[in-house]
Amino acid sequence: MNHSALIRASISNVPPLNPTHLTSFDTQKFAIEGRNVNYSVRTKHGKWVPILKDCSLRIPAGQLWMLLGPNGCGKSTLLKVLAGLLNPTHGTIYVERPKSYVFQNPDHQVVMPTVEADVAFGLGKFNLTKEEVRSRVAKALDSVGMSDYLRRPVQTLSGGQKQRVAIAGALAEACKVLLLDELTTFLDENDQNEVQVNAQKPRLSPFVY
Ligand SMILES: Nc1ncnc2c1ncn2[C@@H]1O[C@H](COP(=O)(O)OP(=O)(O)OP(=O)(O)O)[C@@H](O)[C@H]1O
User: Fold this and answer.
1) Mutual angle of helices 189-199 and 159-172, in 10-degree steps
2) What is the model's pTM?
3) ipTM surpassing 0.90, yes or no?
């Protein structure tokens, strides 16, 4: 996969990054920046197979972008590299923090017994009062249209509802970068639009790190 597979969902295209003109990441302007990112896997026969080849991209803050490309071109791999779940074989990456990654299959992520507990799970690392946690969980669930499901056991949710709960967990942490793998897997078109619009509203104040 190269940067031609990266399509912005709004306004005009930013020209591809020319790494020779830049010496440091422009963290004021870009929420995500990758330079000549390569990722290869080693087969059981010891052969290296390239998946990402010299992939460079810059994504400005406050915008929604989509990665488009054919099956198997490397979209999920690039997202995992940006999320820090995979280490690039070569290249450099900057991603603004806090960042969150929502898996293609929400069963990998929605693990607590109830919706409320699951959305609150990631907040455990912050020094918040119970009231602050409750308030963040309520706002995040409202953002994804799941306020009525607060006390529901997660195993009773549909795939799309689980995906919304996973997104609410990311929003509750006021992530600055939200990496969504295959938003289309479980959400229908209306739900995708709703989540995208709501996720861009600044309802939750960011944490100070
Ligand atoms: N651990 C691995 N070992 C071998 N090949 C892998 C590994 N991980 C990914 N691949 C291969 O890398 C390529 C890119 O996979 P990736 O999941 O990133 O594609 P994708 O663009 O997200 O595909 P899709 O649209 O089908 O979800 C695929 O050909 C896949 O088989």
Assistant:
1) 10
2) 0.78
3) yes
Substitution candidate for ligand 1 out of 73, 79, 101, 103 with most atoms within 8 A of CB? 73
Alpha helices in the chain (DSSP H): 75-83, 115-121, 130-143, 159-172, 189-199
Question: pLDDT-based confidence at 197, cuts 50/70/90?
Answer: low
Ligand 1 geometric centre to CA of 77 (Å): 6
* Residue nearest (by alpha carbon) to ligand 1 atom 7: 41
- Residue closest via CA to ligand 1's atom 17 equals 76
Q: Whose C-alpha lies nearest to ligand 1, atom 1? A: 41
* CB of 69 closer than 6 angstroms to any ligand 1 atom: yes
Domains within the chain, CATH numbers bracketed: 29-96 (3.40.50.300), 99-208 (3.40.50.300)
Residue with tokens 């099956």: 71
pLDDT in tens, 65-91: 988 889 999 999 999 999 999 999 999
Residue 195's closest CA among 159, 120, 145, 138? 145
Query: What is the distance between the alpha carbons of residues 145 and 139, in angstroms, rounded to a whole number?
Result: 10
Partners of 77 in beta bridges: none
